[in-house]
Amino acid sequence: MNVAPSLNMEFIEIPGTSIRVSRIALGTWAIGGWMWGGSDESEAVKTIHAALDRGINFIDTAPVYGFGRSEEIVGRALDGRRHRAVIATKVGLDWKDGKPFRNASRSRIMEEVEQSLRRLRTDVIDIYQIHWPDPLTPISETAEAVGALYRDGKIRAVGVSNFSPAQMDEFRAIAPLHAAQPPYNMFERAIEQDVLPFCRDNRIALLAYGSLCRGLLSGRMSSSSRFAGDDLRKSDPKFRSPRFEQYIGAVTRLDRFAQEWFGRRVIQLAVRWVLDRGPLNVALWGARRAEQLSPISNVFGWRIDDAAMADIDRILAETIRDPVGPEFMAPAEREAVR
């Protein structure tokens, strides 16, 4: 399940498993097209191949990304290359008329795992994650169902996404828990109060999604950037004035800091920052074109020390006067879409 590492790529082992993953994972939400203004399938396949060639062996997807399309593209791209990739996908969301809602019931999990295996063209899912906690399903029911899949060998590791420490504790009382996937980046740091230390203390791999904050930390945006179609950034408070200008100002200063102190750009600083916040941290890097992976090689071979971390905190405090988190992304409960 491992690809030969590039000269600089860093790897970790998922605790409690034999799974070795690159510390950058390819995030494929945008590849599914939904909420990202569409996607070109042939270009997406090239992107996945380019990721493998750059030493990334970790591909993260989910059924809801394009309502099956992202998983299908990943399966197509890995046909003949499955041995080179660790696949993480998710379970626990359903959808109606293009609107997702939470459903982590046992019946939904058992139905969805078979659909994911088929779309991904594989007989085993390496890391299977509960996408969101479902208030209408007891965590014990969800954990028992995923635990059964783990014992049966249909999945190799168990993860959760968007769970609190209390929810993770309840979950792991019944089933193994190897990984957690919360939102985490320089601009969205709420997990530092609870989830990050919980994962560190319990040796749970932390798979940080949104490490570039939906492109804000790429350094490619300006205050005049606009978003079309179903692009989720149209509903993200960070991308609305006056917050947008504050975040763009922060990126400008962070980019200057990265160049002066490390000879890097803000995109590399942002991902290196996520990795250096914990030894078991993995950063998800979303891309749908191969050239978007070009900056990855400059993420490795250096570190952000405590003094530089403090400087980054100072820049953020001085530029972001009205911070806001990623709460807008939370899907509805089942009863809200009936």
What structural category do the secondary elements indicate?
A: alpha/beta
Relative strand content = 5-15%
Beta strand count: 12
Topology pattern, helix = H, strand = E: EEEHEHEEEHEHEHEHEHHEH
CATH topology: TIM Barrel
Keywords: Oxidoreductase
Domain NADP-dependent oxidoreductase: 23-316
GO molecular function: oxidoreductase activity
Q: What's the helix and strand layout?
A:
Layout: E1 11-13, E2 20-22, E3 24-27, H1 41-53, E4 58-60, H2 69-77, E5 86-91, E6 93-96, E7 99-102, H3 106-120, E8 127-130, H4 139-151, E9 158-161, H5 165-172, E10 179-181, H6 195-201, E11 205-208, H7 243-262, H8 266-276, E12 281-286, H9 306-319
Parallel strand pairs: 3-4, 3-12, 4-5, 5-8, 8-9, 9-10, 10-11, 11-12
Antiparallel strand pairs: 1-2, 6-7
Helix pairs in contact: 1-2, 2-3, 4-5, 7-8, 7-9
Describe this structure in words.
One of its GO terms (cellular component) is cytosol. Keywords: Oxidoreductase. The chain is α/β, with parallel strands linked by helices. It is 33% helix and 14% strand. The chain has one domain: TIM Barrel (Alpha-Beta Barrel), CATH 3.20.20.100. It has helices at 41-53, 69-77, 106-120, 139-151, 165-172, 195-201, 243-262, 266-276, 306-319, and strands at 11-13, 20-22, 24-27, 58-60, 86-91, 93-96, 99-102, 127-130, 158-161, 179-181, 205-208, 281-286. Helix 7 packs across helix 8.
Q: What are the main properties of this structure?
A:
single chain, 338 residues, alpha/beta, TIM Barrel, two-stranded antiparallel ribbon, 14% strand, disordered N terminus, NAD(P)_OxRdtase_dom_sf, oxidoreductase, oxidoreductase activity
